[in-house]
Amino acid sequence: MNHKKLKYRTGFSILLLIMLNMSLSASGQNEMENKEMDNKKDAVPGEMENREGFETAVFAGGCFWGVEAVFESLKGVEDVMSGYSGGDAETASYYTIGSGKTGHAEAVEIIYNPDILSFKTLLDVFFSVAHDPTQLNYQGPDVGSQYRSVVFYTSEDQKMITLKAIEELESTKVLNSKIVTEVIPLDTFYPAEDYHQDFMKLNPDHPYIQYWDKPKIEELEKKYPDLINKM
What we know:
By secondary structure, the chain is of the alpha+beta class. The protein has a single domain, classed as Peptide Methionine Sulfoxide Reductase, Chain A, CATH 3.30.1060.10. Helix content is 42%, strand content 17%. It has helices at 3-37, 64-72, 94-97, 119-130, 156-172, 199-202, 207-223, and strands spanning 55-61, 77-85, 105-112, 138-139, 142-143, 149-153, 182-185, 189-191. Strands 7-6-1-3-2-8 form a six-stranded mixed β-sheet, covered by helices on one side. Strands 4-5 form a two-stranded antiparallel sheet. A hairpin with a 2-residue loop joins strand 4 (138-139) and strand 5 (142-143). The longest helix has 35 residues, at 3-37. The protein is globular. The chain starts with a helix and ends in an 8-residue tail after the last helix. The relative contact order is 0.19.
């Protein structure tokens, strides 16, 4: 075997893969930036929904398109909204948080029925499918503090359940690196622009969705088949 040719082909393949990843990430971001230039309006803070019989969970785990789609697939989930949380700025929009200077993270608000789906189960899906909790300030091709991993707890119970879940997950050593997920109280959740809502459902053939988010749904179906909402 010609080892020089093998080395060249391997290096060339890696270069092609890197270029593909960058292209897919850029195509998604450029499309959103073009839309956002037409709509730089800041989001209005959302009010926590207190639907009778339902509870709320708020997670941040990278680009909210795929995270939203994962949780929308679960039995017992009434609604999922993409948005922004965790920042010091008094307003938030895709355009402003993109700088990484407002402190906000892309997040999802999940309205769920605790009689069907527990908060602990939501955490299990969050940590094992929706994102990689060991990646600090990035997820996949998306880099910046706006893509950090966060559990925004809405009660002391959620806080304690989250801390215990992280401790148990780290003790199993299933993950190769330390979990970097922040566990902080929810302050304000800003709903994202309309074109971000249900993005995967409405744009299933988008290159970013096909490459980065569709595999998450496939992994969800593989790991948690009994949790999938078949309707």
